[in-house]
Amino acid sequence: MAYAATADHVHIEDHPTGWRRWVLSTNHKDIGTMYILFGAFGALFGSVLSLLIRLQLAHPGGTLLAGGEFQIYNVVITAHGLLMIFFFVMPVLIGGFGNWFVPLMIGAPDMAFPRLNNISFWLLIPSLILLTLSIVVGSGAGTGWTFYPPLSSVGQPGAAVDFMLVSLHLAGASSILGAINFITTIFNMRAPGMTMHKVPLFVWGMLVTAFLLLLAVPVLAGAITMLLTDRGFGTTFFEPGGGGDPLLFQHLFWFFGHPEVYIMILPAFGVISQVISTFARKPVFGYLGMAYAMVSIGVIGFVVWAHHMFAVGLDVNVNAYFTAATLIIAVPTGIKIFSWIATMWGGSLTFETPMLYAVGFIILFVIGGVTGVTLANGGVDISLHDTYFVVAHFHYVLSMGALFGIFAGFYYWFPKMTGKMIPNWMGNIHFWITFIGVNVIFFPMHFLGLAGMPRRIPDYPEAFSGWNYIASIGALMTFAGAIYFAFIVFYGFKWGKKAPANPWGEGATTLEWTLSSPPPFHTFETQPHIS
Amino acid sequence: MGDKIIKRHQMGKTLAITLCSLFFPTCATAAFPKPWQMYYQEPATPVMEYLYDFHATLLWIEGGIVLLVATLLIVVIARFRASRNKTASKTSHNTLLEIIWTAIPVLVLVFIAFPSFKLLYMMDVTPKSELTIKAIGNQWYWTYEYPDQEIRFDSNMLAENQMKPGQFRLLEVDNRVMVPTNTNVRVITTSTDVLHSWAVPAFGVKRDSVPGRLNETWFNVKKEGVYYGQCSELCGVKHGFMPIVVEAVSPEKFNEWVASKKSAPRTHSGG
């Protein structure tokens, strides 16, 4: 796809400075930058908690998080999950990269609703404050990130869980508003000639993600509202004593929760497609198949929720249906994997840091994908449900899938966003530390799960100590990698060479590379035309 | 020094056993997890045997997929790196190829689905049950009832200072669930407070205990032995400390146990 773009860099009026530029920002690039910084903070917060978890579990009989009869451990695992999902992966991929690059890729001057964009971001700040309060108020919220009642209703008195639920309400509102903004922008603000079948795959990924958010998050909002009234106002939606049903909550939660996992991975799919096409110097293979694979993953993602509930005692025919529906998701996912490889096939490949992360993504996502096929089988899942096998599976698709997508995108777009280059060799070292580190953490967890170790336990029988110790070593290694990454970013800002408009060569064909690095405050004030 | 060698030798042995159990299902022996275990515990029921074999099939298929993708990636990286391939091709479509990589996964999934459904229905449908046990989850111990034998007792984890040598920390309880071998045992599970989950890995059994609901599952243990499991749904601060221990004995011994339980005064049956 070759775009003939004329980017006219005129910026005369309205270029606010100082605190007004950020707090009152309506500029998609500034808001994107704030999202990325916010996400980096969430990542640091969540990573420190994960390190605490691994230190607690490094040896049997750990006492690091033993406070309050291990309530502290439960609080830490809860906050770790929520932080990584709502305050790291989503803000960086959707708010950060989405805000920055959706308008640039479709040739739009900004998002459709700039003020809505501002409130979407700023809602996250009180949301994070409330989540932090839920860690420290009283004995903290130790419900797990899925906060199933009755543990989250009658089982956890005190205000902590209420803080957590209101925090999620705000994060959810932020997501819904952001989703409306993305859908409107992508449908209405494409430059002339940029038809839906020409928009880059990252934009397709964001479009499907936005629809998932718009349809799934309100269901979560309903569930947490009911939980809040159960807790505080005497309703009994989920309370069997009053005619309610704890399983109703699980249905509602996973009707949101399963699309949520695709919300985290689809933007990463988009990033990987851009990166692979760029460094293979070839257009994406099977573009339409790739776009509609994402659409079908999004659609099927809404009808598979009860595969998280195979052990709760649903009717066997229901379990059979959810087994079949879940297996089907492997088909569009397979299309994507094979198309990425076919994109590389016949290409002229170079392995700059983003490409290393993209190739790493493919292999690790395939490992996480096939264990997903194992777990999709309702019968087999009975032996693995709520064990470390599940922990291994979802960290392979998220902590390696989504995270590698984030790193690929970060190294890919860092020159565009900042105008500075990060030396390749520095990023490559970071890749190898991370790649080895995360595998050392999570691969042994498959063994632990198969051997029967339940998840969310703060101490374990001695038999599980070997692989747990290995996993903890991996966590230290990965954390060291994260500190090194912070140094790389600092280095890039301080000493990085000046980035040209297009540092990646002829493979980088999307519109953002036609702009200077960093792009001017206002872009595409004259519409580009796509031939 | 000598200790070290022996330790290393033992480690090698357990590794060999686990690796061996990975490839030759018959040589594994365990009703409890072993150090460095890498795979399932030895199946103790027909359901778990079927699950074990089906999982092995899955492992071969999935291992093959991972290997295929890894091979393709290595080939691509070797053949099409810029130093070997200066100019990129412009191919971006191949309808036949796209149909193939859609159709073949569908066939593989159909191949998986049949045994998967068989396992699912096998787990669900209790054959004519000969003994019923009620497992009631509480924060943080299990209460067991044998309604037909009028037996009821609590099962608490043994603290470290109560343990006898050879018992497993965090896995041993004061009162084990006794069941006869080669008997269809129906388990009814529920909870008095929050969610719990009654699970025994060697049986292929895991069922959530939900307040206000009676969930049912079943097992039929073939061999006498002691089988260990742990609560498998986060239930609060002592979630990791309410293990499940099932002891399978011959039907005669089981009857003796029932008789002794009935004559003995009922112990702390509060719950």
Describe the protein's topology.
The complex is a heterodimer of chains A (531) and B (271).
Chain A (H helix, E strand, L loop, with lengths): L17 H6 L4 H29 L10 H40 L7 H9 L1 H13 L23 H29 L12 H32 L13 H35 L6 H14 L15 H13 L1 H15 L8 H24 L1 H7 L3 H31 L5 H28 L13 H31 L36
Helix pairs in contact in A: 2-3, 2-4, 2-16, 3-5, 3-6, 3-7, 3-8, 3-14, 4-6, 5-6, 6-7, 7-8, 7-9, 8-11, 8-12, 8-14, 9-11, 11-12, 12-14, 12-15, 14-15, 15-16
Chain B lengths: L1 H22 L22 H34 L15 H30 L6 E8 L2 E6 L4 E5 L21 E4 L4 E7 L4 E5 L4 E5 L5 E5 L5 E6 L12 E7 L1 H13 L8
Parallel strand pairs in B: 1-5, 4-10
Antiparallel strand pairs in B: 1-2, 2-3, 5-8, 6-7, 9-10
Helix pairs in contact in B: 2-3
Q: Which descriptors apply to this entry?
A:
heterodimer; A: mainly alpha; 67% helix; globular; B: 271 residues; alpha+beta; 5-stranded mixed β-sheet; 3-stranded mixed β-sheet; 4 helices; 10 strands; disordered N terminus
Along the chain, the helix and strand elements of chain B come as HHHEEEEEEEEEEH
Q: Structural class of the helices, strands and pairings of chain A?
A: mainly alpha
Mean of pLDDT of chain B: 88
SS element count, helices of chain B: 4
* Rg for CA atoms of chain B: 25 Å
Q: In one word, what is the shape of chain A?
A: globular
Largest sheet entry of chain B: 5 strands, mixed
Instruction: Tell me the total number of β-strands of chain A.
Output: 0
Helix run count of chain A: 16
Contiguous low-pLDDT stretches of chain B (5 residues minimum) are 1-17, 19-30
Largest sheet of chain A: none
Structural class, from helix and strand content of chain B? alpha+beta
Strand adjacency order, main sheet of chain B: 3-2-1-5-8
The total count of strands of chain B amounts to: 10
Global morphology of chain B: elongated
Radius of gyration of chain A: 23 Å
Mean pLDDT of chain A: 95
Distance between the termini of chain B: 52 Å
Determine the fraction of residues in helical runs of chain B and give it as a percent range: 25-40%
Most extensive protein-chain contact, per-chain counts: A-B, 93 and 91 residues
Assess the beta-strand content of chain A as a share of residues: under 5%
